[in-house]
Amino acid sequence: MLKKTFLALSLSAALAGGVQAAAVSEEVIQNSFFPYKNGMPGFSGLSAGLTINQANVEQFREVLDPGLYMFIKNGATEIKVGETTDFALHQSYIDATRQYSGDVTLGEGYGELSKTVAGRPFPQEPSMEDPRAGEKLAWNYKYGYNWGDSATISPFYWTMRDMESGKKERTIKFDFNFLNFTHRTQQTPFPEITPNPSELFRGIYVKVLEPFDVKNTQLLIHRFEDDTKVDNAYLYLGFQRRVRRLSSGQTTDAFLGTDVMIEDFEGYNGRISDMKWVYKGTRNMLMPFYNHNEMVLDSETHQDEDGYQVVAFGGKGGCFPNITWQLRKVYEVESIPQDENHPISKRTHFMDAQTFTIPRTVVYDRKGDMWKNWIIGQAHPDHHLPVNKGTGVSIDDAFSMIDIQAQHCTTGQFKGIVDPSRSPADKFTVQNMRASGN
Amino acid sequence: MSKTITTTSTPLAVAVAAALAGGLTAQHVAAADTTWAGFVENATYHRKDVGISKFRNTAQAEFETKFDSDSFRSLRLNGVLRGTYDGVYDLNDDEFGKDAQQDYLGQDWHSAGTATTTIPGPNVPILSAGVPFPCENDPTLCDNLDGYMDQKERDARFPEFNDRLDFIRELYVSADKELTNGDVLSFRLGKQQVVWGKTDLFRVLDVINPVDYSRHNIYDELEDIRIPQWMLTAEWRMGPNQVLDDSNLSLVWNFDKFRPSNLGTCGQSYKILDAGCFFSSYINVDKLVGGPYTAPVPIIHDVEEPEWSLANTQLGMKWEGVYGDATFSVNALTYRQQLPSLHFRELAPGTGAPATDGVFDIKFPRVNLLGGAIDYYSMDMDAVWRVELAYTEGEELPRDLDGHKETDMLRYVIGLDKNLVIPALGTSSAFLISGQLFGEHILDHEADMPNDEDNWIATGLFKGWYMNNRLSPQIIVAHDFAAKATAVAPSISWTPDNHWMFNLGLNVKFGGDEQFPWSVAGFADTYEPLARFTNGPIGVANQEDEIQFTIRYSF
Lengths: 438, 555
Prior knowledge:
The complex is a heterodimer of chains A (438) and B (555). Chain A is an alpha+beta fold. Helix content of chain A is 13%, strand content 32%. Chain A has one domain: Lipoprotein localisation LolA/LolB/LppX (outer membrane lipoprotein receptor (LolB), chain A). Chain A has helices at residues 2-16, 26-33, 66-73, 91-100, 133-142, 430-436; strands at 51-52, 79-81, 150-162, 168-180, 200-210, 218-224, 232-237, 242-246, 275-287, 289-290, 297-298, 310-311, 313-314, 320-321, 324-337, 344-352, 360-365, 370-379, 395-403, 408-417. In chain A, strand 3 (150-162) and strand 4 form a beta hairpin. In chain A, helix 1 packs parallel to helix 4. The termini of chain B are close together. Chain B is 9% helix and 44% strand. The longest helix of chain B is centred in the N-terminal third of the chain and has 10 residues, at 11-20. Chain B has an 18-stranded antiparallel β-barrel. In chain B, strands 11-15-14 form a 3-stranded mixed beta sheet. In chain B, strands 9-10 form a two-stranded antiparallel sheet. Chains A and B meet through strand 4, strand 5, strand 8 and helix 6 of A and strand 2, strand 5, strand 16 and strand 18 of B.
């Protein structure tokens, strides 16, 4: 904890000596980062401990997204309500917003943004009158605190399930690593890692540990500061023992046969410029935020020396995380692919206003029919692994991508770790992929 | 699922730890977790008009032990153990094995030509049929081929259990040391595969390890048919600088005793270019000419495999990096030609007649390679271009008049990979569409070489995924322009769960009927012996149409 405090102080000192933008008002900062400072949201009849099921779902339809409403109504799942809790982000990120975001502006075209350093680019409350409000929210997500400056999910179990029979078809065990090269606030160096000749913004490195037929498959994604530039993606196949470049077509592919596209990672994992973003309004909704240590855990899938266990799943086909849902302030945003050949027609994202994570997304196929439902459970860092305490990272902790049409789902069980020593910059290199294979 | 075993004092781990900690006695090195994984597999192939051509049963286990070390950022020991029993020599011993006689040389891939048709009178053909497994049938040939292509049937039945300990496919120690400036020095010592280049199916830069073509010609994954070598690799990973996003300088020292590629012994079910049978045949010059010849002359007199010496080891260097949208490498290697070069032995200078005790010596000349590879993502095409190039000096190619000639060679590959979602084909998964053109240019070409001065092989791959990638059909097509030969290999793979995999495939060839306008029979178009080079690995296998079924259980 002392170390983290020191890092935050270091950032403050570093930022103080850097370029100064117009100041963001304290009122804007407080509204953006502490939406519950004046009290928690409420809804008639809704209270912690309540179970929403087929019997009472109509009463709470207003605070449910259409996908979750459908599942409960159909009896596929029922959800338990938890207390709304504060998921305060790290102070360094808030400070960076305060100091750098005062004069951030959109460019003329999609995916264009004035120079930003760190922090939330548009902390102001979105307006329905602003035709580009959705785009600003998308930028807030892209440059959000998400996993912080770096993090690891190790291990990360993805299980493909037949929703009708509940049969587990395959389980893939991964390690995931994330690193921000720029827009850094908490972990040294700030605000960026240098040298960075291609001006990379973020790296995602994925390695498959099991099963044998895909073991040592590795994926590396480099995202650029220039949002108009297509990500560079590299794939290492264990049986080929070499790194191949990927064309972006594979980012909308079923990743290793799961129900998840690379583009779905973390809620949305693509360029801002690939989508048209439409702000649909602000609502209070039930969202999958909880304290991991208080949930029903799965002692069968994973046990380790830390005593850590992953979140258990239940409901129809075992496709739903056994977690609690809390009423939170949400921005509803649609993303509509610019490419008419994209396999989907749109996504409806439900962005959490405080953390700018995307815990709920409903995906529609080309015909406009509901296709997939994306749940990413968010765990409070102070009620998770000890190493995560105080990091201010809303921990992605359990996911489910449900293909409604195929009655199939892929579930994810995480051990998320915010520890910079696990994600050094050289892990996000092509050379590391080659060297880490056999 | 792989199995994790916590070990603290396995003899191997302790030995490795001790070796690495030498000179660092105050440092802590201890074995931590060991993970095991592997599979058992049966591959049964049926060849048209022949019957079972493969009944290969493989067990493979892989392990990795990670060590806790104060001295290294990463320290691990990896091993791959493999054992194979190919039952084809028990199930189809009429066609394969020590008793599998052929009517004439090359019966597997061409009709009898002038060089292999029995001549009335002497009642022999000019070239005799190859002797299957000569060390089971012909002591002279066995002695001449000593050390190369001299397998016994048992060696083909159990290919990994030999004096080179091939059942240890890989065993190496890797260590990464982070420098104060953030660069990483990395070492890997042991029996290993080192993969260069970006080409599928054919090798341009990927030439450090020799290859066992007897397992399944060119069609198995290279990972399974590279012959691992005892090597030391050292890397200096420099990471990004002001220009490059990533860069790395690596050295590879292959200090293993030289080992050529395995082309398959006569009598095996896969013998690329039918070289094994040619090497174990005779020219019946005694019956045809008489004179100094009192017995048929073996085609091969001796195999001159380089003995181990420091001078005979092989050394390579590679610099690679990432620049913008391109990844590149520059490669240099001094090594030995892994395919045999046939050196003609004259009866007496100027006679043009073969020596009485053997026509050719097999040699493996020293080769120097300079090359590079680059791949580039084109945003406009949403596709990846691959280019790979290798220039060599010192290679020797066959020719009719002198047996061989040293020539510089240029090999290159241009490839294009694209992932494309095709909704009309009923899956939301993107199809992989990959094409490549492999070219070869002989700089010092002679008219009497069976290889064209320029030749190309084109390959195409179309692969799709259904049912959450558990069902995967694909088709591979390869066409050799000079040989006018084509291989078509459709297959479908079914992976019902984490353990089982079933693969059903066809491998069908067309063409490969090219003749060569000269032979031991005189100046007439025929097949033997040189048209095997003209027809290449696809054409010479033109009778090897197969249906192939593989079942694997992984753990």
